[in-house]
Design brief:
Bound molecules: zinc ion
Number of strands: 16
Largest sheet: 9 strands, mixed
Structural class: alpha+beta
Number of helices: 16
Helix content: 40-55%
Strand order of the largest sheet: 2-6-7-10-1-11-12-13-14
Length: 493
């Protein structure tokens, strides 16, 4: 059987990071407050209360539309979507239906094959968030549920993509790129809990499409899609068919489950919202100037700092990280760039992910000092990682934070001067930095040294590769070759 083609389209709901709600003056900063304290007659849907549109949220939505290359429609309109659910106090949601704010754009992602790939955007519309149900026990067996309307009326945009993604990995890349773009536009904060929710449409080419609702994390999307693809493929392999249905993603169990409700669009009885006038935004949208977006910043990092494409992608893929990088190199642009590039994009990110920490928690001045110690050859790369780990752990555990130099002294970490004096014993003279690098590489890769002695040519190239990495490509390759050969022959004797 040939590999079946996977088809994925996403509907992404993002909370716009405004100060007040979409149709009233209630504050959106509700997350640490008691339930039902950020409410008023409008967002509680009391009789006679009238919505007043928040201008800022429309401006934010238009920024997103422009950044995603969409056309903002000269006239758009709000509609009522009628249904009853306890989290929807008015029994209708104000959303946009047949006249959305914007249509027809695209977002470029890195495709699975490595090149750039365009994911088309069908439409972007503005709507209000419903409230939130809090289940006592669990949703199926709990005795009762509580409802919190603090979230009711928070401005959302829904971004609908065409079914252009071909794997869960591409869906993840689309979401990451979208998140970065929204953050660069200063309209969205991905670190706020529940600020992004995704519905995914997924099918195997030639069969029915399944909608998976209610995915509330970035990692959840990839997992839900992987589960759903496996489920659909195994049905097809057994000669069964995939039903067209809506399923819910159960995050804790990592599975999707068929949902009983079978609403169709016509069940919602959409009609134009009588309390709000149609939106005419043409002259307004023309005046919106976009800031530097992730792709432009990536190209600038390559041109201005000489970052590799991969490093530039990683560094600019998150606004906080890109800002952190520029803050660090601003201290000493010439000396620190080659170090900062690798140390942030590879080492620091790895250590942060391991601790589930955000780069916001890292003290830029301390990190710059660490890089300076490395740059001035005061400590070795290995010791640098040791010091970085201590710095992050202190921050993570809310301990008093030491400076890198204090950590170096306290732990008595291996300094370059120690390595140098050990080496000078065998050399009789103080060796140069290349010889230090060679000595380190040989100690770290005994198997390759052994292979070289057995006559394996590849081992020499491997060691040269390690050396280039260690010297960050700064050393003269011919000189490295000569010194490495000299050192290896000496050791053989
Ligand atoms: Zn309100």
């Amino acid at each position: 059987m040939t590999e079946e083609q996977v088809i994925v389209g996403l509907e992404v709901h993002c909370q716009l990071d405004t100060m007040s709600k979409l149709f009233c003056g209630c504050s959106t900063d509700y997350r640490s407050d008691a339930p039902n304290t950020h409410v008023c007659p409008v967002c509680l849907g009391l009789p006679g209360a009238m919505p007043v549109l928040n201008k800022r949220s429309i401006e934010y939505a238009m920024r997103v539309a422009k950044a995603l290359n969409c056309s903002v429609l000269p006239e758009s309109e709000f509609s009522r979507k009628n249904y009853f659910y306890p989290d929807l106090d008015k029994a209708y949601q104000i959303t946009q239906y047949d006249k959305p704010l914007a249509e027809g754009g695209y977002l470029e992602i890195e495709s699975d094959e490595g090149g750039e790939k365009r994911i088309r955007i069908t439409r972007i519309h503005v709507e209000e968030d419903p409230g939130r149900l809090v289940h006592r026990g669990n949703a199926e067996r709990g005795k009762y549920s509580l409802v919190d309307y603090n979230r009711a009326g928070i401005p959302l945009i829904e971004i609908v993509s065409e079914p252009d993604m071909r794997s869960p990995k591409e869906a993840r890349k689309f979401l990451n790129k979208l998140r970065a773009t929204l953050e660069y536009l200063s309209v969205f904060d991905s670190e706020k809990e529940g600020s992004l929710r995704v519905d995914a449409n997924i099918s195997i080419k030639g069969s029915e499409r399944v909608e998976v609702k209610n995915i509330s994390s970035y990692k959840g999307v990839e997992k839900a899609l992987l589960f759903e693809i496996t489920r659909q493929k195994s049905l097809l392999r057994r000669g069964q068919k995939v039903d067209r249905e809506t399923r819910h993603y159960l995050e804790a169990r990592g599975v999707t489950q068929s949902s009983r409700s079978k609403e169709q669009e016509h069940d919602y009885r959409y009609f134009p919202e009588p309390d709000l006038r149609p939106l005419h935004v043409q002259s307004w949208v023309d005046g919106i100037v976009l800031p530097e977006l992730p792709d432009a910043r990536r190209e600038r990092f390559i041109a201005q700092y000489g970052c590799s494409l991969n490093h530039a992608r990683t560094l600019t893929g998150e606004l906080r990280l890109a800002n952190f990088f520029e803050k660090v190199v601003a201290a000493d642009p010439k000396g620190l760039i080659p170090l900062a590039d690798t140390w942030i994009a590879d080492t620091l990110i790895g250590e942060l992910n391991y601790r589930n920490m955000s780069v916001d928690a890292v003290d830029a001045a301390g990190f710059t000092e660490l890089l300076t110690l490395l740059e001035q050859c005061i400590i070795t790369d290995k010791s640098g990682i040791e010091v970085l780990r201590v710095m992050l752990d202190q921050r993570l555990n809310n301990q008093a934070c030491e400076t890198p130099s204090e950590i170096v002294e306290r732990l008595n970490v291996r300094k370059v001067s120690t390595v140098t004096s050990e080496l000078s014993l065998s050399y009789g003279v103080v060796p140069n930095p290349l010889q230090i690098a060679i000595a380190e590489v040989l100690t770290e890769n005994p198997a390759a040294v052994e292979d070289f002695r057995k006559g394996k040519k590849g081992a020499f190239n491997f060691l040269i590769g390690q050396l280039m990495k260690k010297t960050r490509g700064c050393a003269d390759p011919a000189e490295l070759n000569r010194l490495l050969k000299e050192e290896l022959t000496k050791k053989e004797v």
